[in-house]
Amino acid sequence: MSLLQFTAKGIYCPVGKFYIDPWQPVDFAVITHAHGDHARWGSRYYLAHEFSQPILKVRLGPDTVIETLPYGVTKNINGVKLSLHPAGHIIGSAQVRLEYKGFVSVVSGDYKTENDGISTPFEPLRCNEFVTESTFGLPIYNWLGQVQIFDNIKQWILRNQSNGRTSIFIAYSLGKAQRLMKGLEGVANIFVHSSIERLNEAIRSASITLPHAKQWTSDTPRTALQNSIVILPPSLLGTNMIKKIPHGAIAICSGWMQVRGNRRWQSVDAGFAVSDHADWRGLLDTIRYTGAEKVYVTHGYTATFSKYLNEIGIAAQEVITQYGSDEEAEADNSKEAISPEV
C-alpha cells in the first residue's frame, strides 16, 4: 500500500486528491515550506503552516488563497488525516503526515535535525513510508554543533574588528539570514539587504521575534558599517554593490563549505559549514527512527544515498523531482533571482 504517487506535476495523494509541493499549478497544494522550489506560484488553493502564510503572501502574491494549520492539528481531507509537524529547516517548515486506514506516510520536505534556535525544532515521526531529501547524503557531510559553529563565526568577526574590517555574510534571504541574525545577536550591529528585510517584516507579522537589524543600501554611511555585520543574498557576490562596503571581509555560509575546495573556488575570505539541511548522520538517524518499510529519496545525492540505504537493509527508491537546493545555488554562485530560494 502507498498513499503517494510521483507524477509529472509533483507528489500526489490520490485518496486525498491533493499534491504536496507540486512544481506545476494544481487545484490543491500542501506546502512544506516557503522556499521557491517547494512553493510555486499558480495553484488554486494552498495549505501551509501558519508561520509560512505571510512569507507565502510575499512570494506568491497577496491575493493567494492560503489555509493554515498549526503544528500537530489534524485536518480531514477526503478521508485522509493530514497534519503538519516541525521540520526544523526554516521558520514555518513542516513535514506532512498523512494517515488513511491505519497506514501512515510522511513527506519531510527539507529538514534539519539540530535545533538552530529560531526554527521550531525537528520532530521525528513514525510511519510506514517516508519521503526524504538527500542534499548532503554523503558521509563527508557531518556538521559541527550549533554552538561551535557560531563560536567559530564570532571569532572570525572579532579578528575582523581588530583589523578594522566589516564582516560580510552571504546567506539566503529566507532561512539562513534569520539564523545568522539570531546566532550573532549582540556581537555587533547587523545590517541586512532589502530582500532580507522584506521577509523579516513578513516573519515578524506572524508574531515571531527577530533580532534588530538595519537595512543596508549602497548609500549607508561607511562609518556606520565599520566593525559591523552585513548579511547579503548570493546575487550580490562579486558585484560592484558589495565592493562599496569599505574594508569588507566576505564569508559564505553553506554546507558545501565543509569541503575546502569550495571555499577557495569562491575566492572569498572564509567559509562556514552552516546548513539548514540534515547532515549524513541526521538523515540516517531520522530514517531509522521512522521505522518506514519504504523510503523515497528525493533531491540531492539520490542514487548514492538510496543505494546505501538498500545495502544496510532499508528498502529505498530514488525519485526524480524538480526540487532544488539553496545550498547548491550557493556553491554554484547562482543569482538569487533564478535560484530555488528566491
UniProtKB/TrEMBL annotation:
NCBIfam families attached to this UniProt entry: Xnuc_lig_assoc
Source taxon at top rank: Bacteria
Signal peptide coordinates: none
An example molecular function term from Gene Ontology annotations: exonuclease activity
Protein name listed in UniProt: Ligase-associated DNA damage response exonuclease
Residues passing through the membrane, by range: none
The protein's Enzyme Commission number: 3.1.-.-
Enzyme class: hydrolase
